[in-house]
Amino acid sequence: MRINNFDMKIIFLFFCASLISICSFSEEYYVYTYFYDAERQNEGLHMAVSRDGIKWTPVNNDVATFHPGFGTRFRDPSLVKDTHDIKLFHMVWTTERNDGFGIASSYDLINWFDVREVLVNKNVKGVINTWAPELFWDSDNNVWMAYWGSSIEGKFPETAKLSKNPKANNRMYYSVSKDLRKWSEPKLFQDYGFPSNDAYIYRLPQDDPNGKFIKFVKHIVKPGNNAQIRIAYSDSLYGPYRLTDKYISRKYKFMEGPNLLKIGDYYYLNVDLSREHRMALFRTKCFNDCEWEDLTDKAGFPKASKHGCIIGISKEIYNKLLEL
Question: To which H or E segment does residue 321 belong?
Answer without folding.
Answer: helix 315-322
